[in-house]
Amino acid sequence: MTAVDSPGRTGRRPGNSGARTAILTAARSRFAEVGFDKASIRFIAASAGVDPALVHHYFGTKRELFVAAVDLPVDPAVVIGALDAVPLDQLGEQLLRTVVGIWDSPLGEGAVAAFRSIVSGDEPTLLRTFLIDVVLKNIRDRVDSPQGSGSARVALVASQMLGVLIARKVIGIEPLASMPIDALAAAVAPTLQRYLTGPTP
Fold first, then answer.
1. In this structure, what DSSP letter does residue 8 have?
2. What's the pTM value of the predicted model, to 2 decimals?
3. Is 33 inside any structural domain?
4. Which of 33, 54, 70 represents a domain boundary (last residue)?
5. Tens of pLDDT along 57-84?
């Protein structure tokens, strides 16, 4: 079965009872299996036993469905939009400030909870999908110089940011856990920038 094949089950689930939960369950499974780009609303709807229109009714776009499926407290578009216009030579620092700013905000508790849930759940590949296919996709394309290096660059960035998240918000390693954002940016952003635009990894 290919990424775009239908599982062959169509039609609206009788009534709406349980339909939203069924859609979320099917979406988590499909996003974990094939990633964000290859997952289709049509396949997810068929797996849940509902019409695609009902998926759009409950969740809107595929990106909004992903946010709901992963139980994120903030739409990835907030992060992506803050980074798209940033000059390439400032991207490392702005990425750090934007992401850590969310973690340290009132939304941060929900973000850390979502992270714990994904990592400890049955579908940890959702975290990879979220980072690589959603948040860092545009950055990967921008830093793909020389051609073909973009994937390695954003993978290194993701590893660094996950390390900061775990140390700062999950384990609480001091002084990193309480380090002011300016000090954290001064320490970590140059490494991120090197991964993004430095010598080929």
1. S
2. 0.70
3. yes
4. 70
5. 999 888 888 878 877 767 777 777 778 8
Positive or negative: CA dihedral 96, 98, 101, 107 = negative
Question: For 151-163, what is the mean pLDDT?
Answer: 93
Number of domains in the chain: 2
Distance CA 196, CA 154 (A): 7
pLDDT at 28 > cutoff 50: yes
Is the torsion defined by CA of 12, 15, 16, 21 positive or negative? Answer: negative
Q: What is the pLDDT of residues 116-155, one digit of tens each?
A: 766 666 666 777 777 777 778 889 999 999 999 999 999 9
Contacts of residue 1, Cβ cutoff 8 Å, sequence gap at least 6: 7
Answer with the one of 8, 36, 70 that is the final residue of a domain: 70
Q: Dump the DSSP string for 96-136.
A: HHHHHHHHHSTTHHHHHHHHHHHHHSS-THHHHIIIIIIIS
The two three-digit tokens of residue 6, written as one number = 């239908």
Q: Assess whether the previous peptide bond of 76 is cis (omega < 30° from 0).
A: no
